[in-house]
Amino acid sequence: MNVVTYAGLRDARPEQWKEAADDFAALATYVNQASVDLRGDTGAKVDEHWADDTGKQASARLYALAGKLDSAYDLLYAVKMVLEGMHTTVQTAQSTLNEALHLASEYGIDLDDQGRPTGQETQYQVVAEIAALHSQALRQATDADNAARAELAKLRAAVGVTDPGKALTLQGEASHIEMNAFAGMIPAGQDPATVALWWSGLTPQEQHDLMLAEPVQLTKLDGIPESAKAQMRGTDGKFDRTKMVDYALQNWNTKDPTHFDNNCTNFVSEALLHAGMQRKMGFWSGVKGGDDWGKESGTGWDLLDTHLYFSDSWAGAEAQQNFMLKHGGEEVPRSQARPGDIIYYEQQAAGSSNDPGQTHHAAIVTAVMPDGEIKYTQHTDSYQNVSLQGRLPHETEAEGQQNVRIVRPHPDWY
């Protein structure tokens, strides 16, 4: 295992990781566009104007090449995510290390050549806090460096993968490596005073980035300002966005109390209910009044319960989207997405069994990265913290062009 040294972290240039990540992102975009062009204009022209056996063979070769480009896109985007995680991790670790150095200077505490406090027994508490910050910074950078090193080696070995399914799996694994890097930035288990020092040593932008990437961990950590926790939970007090995210992350691969054949929207509703969103039900009509959101106690038989004891907006993507927007919710651009928002997929053009304009899928935003990349968690199929931008080309290829809508609920019925 490689250990990041004090001098190595102090002198690191994390902007170089960012530059490399941007280069891989640009290359991934270029490769994806090439795949789209092969299937679109080029493939369509071959199919239209070259209908004999030779044309069919040429068309098949073009579509096979497009599939290889899809795999290349996944691998390039995977590298981009790992590099983004390293950039933010090292940059934040440097801020933590600088806070330790600032604290030592403020109290006149000597440091050895590794940046560790020495002596000063009369200032035990400050020395302990400096040591904790120093240890946090080096541990964070070391863990991220080792994880990134191993992941990049795995991706380098996979450069010949041409199966889009395998490549997409690798992309998902890289997404988790990036998320693990963010989780490793948080000083879990430290005393509140050290946590408060760590937090104050971060720049406002670094604080903002962590609040979007790891809201669940931060809200559970003593020493984080209550104002920051309130912002992550949701300032309107109607439901706790971090509990919604926590439910999704903890239950992404478990069965909900009642399971629908297409369970994506039911999963979103269960997360909202666990987060404190109150049901909207008619006194006489229950959940079947046409403008309701909720569920009632059923028989325990899913086949019967799914038809009788749930509102249309509980488990239907389009009905839920329209209900949330009608009752206080707002649609926000992707650039403003936050954990606890809901992603809806609206069919934009023909290409699947869904009619154009139909909303057919729902998922939960569970993290947003500093570069704006959105991570989501869902059921049917079950995924945890996968990349919206990374997976969207596959959704488009499988289902046709999609209009991705981000909806932020603000319930107005209570």
TrEMBL record:
Membrane-spanning ranges: none
Organism per entry: Actinacidiphila epipremni
Protein name, per record: Putative amidase domain-containing protein
Domain Putative amidase, residue spans: 239-389
Classification via PANTHER family: EXPORTED PROTEIN (PTHR40032:SF1), EXPORTED PROTEIN-RELATED (PTHR40032)
InterPro entries, sorted: Amidase_6
Region described as Disordered: 395-414
